[in-house]
Amino acid sequence: MLRWADILKFAKYSNPEPPRRLEQSEAEWATQLTPAQFAIMRQKGTEPPYRNAYCRSYEPGVYACVGCGSLLFDSTTKYHAISGWPSFTQPLTKNAIRYGFDESHHMQRMEALCNVCGSHLGHVFPDGPEPSGLRYCINSEALTRLDQATD
């Protein structure tokens, strides 16, 4: 289980190695992503709170990066954080997310990026529920939910 101290170490010293890397030009990203996805994922934008696809959605499944398909979060770690964006307590794997310090907009935050394609997903904060205390606040535009197969 990741904790805030782990996130700080990753951002300061070295992020976990991704299972693979995907590098594309911004022109290639622009043809692959919708304008809203491009603005968020490649230009580090954000979507309006509460008016997004997964804020109030709690169906079972796994959330993947829209850009590269990497699996990022499981629905079992999603919770209602009253933040306006989908919130998770843990990534699916230790190396799913890359972390970086973000001091834009006169704030100090920890940016969460896809570790495979480097796309901006959102931010992670140390004010989530126990036992991890983490809140991954992620833009719906950066995610796609893959339904879990049922027997």
Describe the structure.
Helices cover 15% and strands 26% of the residues. With 151 residues, it is of the alpha+beta class. A hairpin with a 6-residue loop joins strand 5 (97-102) and strand 6. The longest helix has 9 residues, at 4-12. The chain starts with a helix and ends with a strand. The mean pLDDT is 94.
**Computed Rg:** 14 Å
Form type: globular
Beta fraction of the residues? 25-35%
Tally of discrete structural domains: 1
State the secondary-structure class. Answer: alpha+beta
**Straight-line distance between termini:** 29 Å
Helix content: 10-25%
Q: Helix segment count? A: 3
CATH topology: Metal Binding Protein, Guanine Nucleotide Exchange Factor, Chain A
Q: CATH first level: which class? A: Mainly Beta
Q: Could you give the order of strands across the largest sheet?
A: 3-4-8-7-6-5
Summarize the structure.
This protein has 151 residues and is α+β, with helices and mostly antiparallel strands. It is built from three helices and nine strands, in the order αααβββββββββ. It is 15% helix and 26% strand.
Descriptive terms for the model:
151 residues, alpha+beta, Metal Binding Protein, Guanine Nucleotide Exchange Factor, Chain A, three-stranded antiparallel sheet, 3 helices
